[in-house]
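Continuing the series of single-chain predictions for the mutant panel. This is the parent chain; the variants come on the following pages.
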Amino acid sequence: MIGVPRMGAGRCFLRLAPRSRFSVQGVVELMSGTRIVVNEEAHLEIGDGTYLHCGVTVSCFEHIAIGPDCAISWNTTILDGNGHVLIVEGKGRPWSKPVIIDEHVWIGSGATVLSGVTIHEGAVVGAGSLVTRDVPCRTTVAGNPARILGEDAEWVKDREVCLDSPLKVDRPTGHSDQPPPFPKPGPPDVAR
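Parent structure:
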């Protein structure tokens, strides 16, 4: 599904250059505002049950593979290259390096995944993170640059499944499934 309407984020943009490939296995959701560019001779793959939420940008210069059952949150950027030749101390840097996002990965909103990174199965990337290195299986990373915050991470994509999940969730004391009440207004502040 392309351009699934959510929160009015605008139209999807999909640019496929000559001799590029865009492979989809099964059902994939590209929410409104998603921008995808697959450059000449590049290959973008997305697995079944994965969604790219509003405002996600994917820029593929060589090869990006996003596995099945992934959740790519709002305003995330995934790129396998920079589109420019970079020379540092007289040595040319690679134009691009493949990005691999394994099965059942959750990437939080506003994260950026750079070239040459593999995010392994079950990993969670915190919102706003800059991923410059590989992320091991079932770890949680966050920060700029992203660093490991925890291991043995588990997450559930579907909220309804989560409510019935056997996973143990630590909840604050006094937690209720009801939203907290609105605070009652107090007396107005009086400037003296």
